[in-house]
Amino acid sequence: MADQTPAPSGPSSGTPMVRMTGVNKHFGDLHVLRDIDLEVARGEVVVVLGPSGSGKSTLCRAINRLEPVDGGTVEIDGTPLPAEGRDLAKLRSDVGMVFQQFNLFAHMTILDNVTLAPTRVRGKSKSEAQERARTLLDRVGIGNQSDKYPAQLSGGQQQRVAIARALAMEPKVMLFDEPTSALDPEMVGEVVEVMSGLAKDGMTMVVVTHEMGFARRTAHRVVFMADGEIVEDTTPDSFFSRPATERARDFLGKILTH
Ligand SMILES: Nc1ncnc2c1ncn2[C@@H]1O[C@H](COP(=O)(O)OP(=O)(O)O)[C@@H](O)[C@H]1O
Ligand SMILES: [Mg+2]
């Protein structure tokens, strides 16, 4: 047997998994991303914080070109994202995305939601896709729900399905945009737990979240955005105990006393 020892988690050196260089984005007169330079190493977990409207969602969407950018480059695992076409679809499928809204197909079972893209886009056989989907549903703790429909599941369970669905494409990096913000408080923990497990297994992750516990415990780095700029990029410990900017201190004051 080959050596099955898992790779240690945590950032590794070499080609960054995500590299944004000089990325700019406008919505009309509004300059939403300003000269963004951001590298995320393989196996690294980066939490993105910042006030509402600071550009966090746009940053995530720029990483897989759900949002076209006006200038600069985005590379995934060393390959620049093409502007459009088949190559874009291929590279984009290397980037898994989980949103605040789960966006599951209501008329399809949980299992079918998870196998849809692997069979349609990756060309996997149905049986192969189903086997993998069952493994992933087990991993997120809902293996016994696979024949149900989304509306029969709680919000926390639906979000875990959305994570399994993204993982089914075998992405190189996972983006999470406020994955727990639409959940009832008692369901936040189960989703955070799944994300922490992924991080421990070495997944490269960019996570926009207000879960400061996750940021402190699990992130390797915190990126703080304000007005479309990255104004701090540091370790969780230094960000939370010694924020360098007035903007970050103000932000932390608001969320931590909330
Ligand atoms: N499609 C859009 N058209 C126009 N303005 C947008 C659009 N999407 C976002 N914006 C604006 O861009 C800014 C950044 O938005 P967003 O990236 O969603 O911020 P965040 O996720 O940090 O709250 C906000 O001022 C928002 O109103
Ligand atoms: Mg947002």
Report on the structure:
With 258 residues, this protein is an alpha/beta fold. It has helices at 56-63, 86-92, 110-120, 126-139, 155-167, 185-200, 212-218, 236-241, 246-257; strands at residues 18-27, 30-40, 45-49, 71-76, 79-80, 95-98, 173-177, 204-208, 221-226, 229-234. The strands form two sheets. A six-stranded mixed sheet has the order 6-7-8-3-9-10, sandwiched between helices. Strands 2-1-4-5 form a four-stranded antiparallel sheet, with helices on one face. α5 packs parallel to α6. The chain is globular. Bound molecules: adenosine-5'-diphosphate and magnesium ion. Residues 27, 30, 32, 50, 52-58 line the site of adenosine-5'-diphosphate. Residues 56-57, 177-178 line the site of magnesium ion.
Number of helices, counting only DSSP H or I runs of 4 residues or more: 9
Order of helices and strands: EEEHEEHEHHHEHEHEEHH
The computed structural class is alpha/beta
Helix content: 25-40%
Shape: globular
CATH level 3 topology:
Rossmann fold
Over the alpha carbons, how many angstroms does the gyration radius reach?
A: 18 Å
* Separation of the first and last Cα atoms: 53 Å
Uncertain stretches: none
Class in CATH? Alpha Beta
Hetero ligands? adenosine-5'-diphosphate, magnesium ion
**The CATH superfamily title:** P-loop containing nucleotide triphosphate hydrolases
Overall tally of domains: 1
- Strands of the biggest beta sheet: in what spatial order? 6-7-8-3-9-10
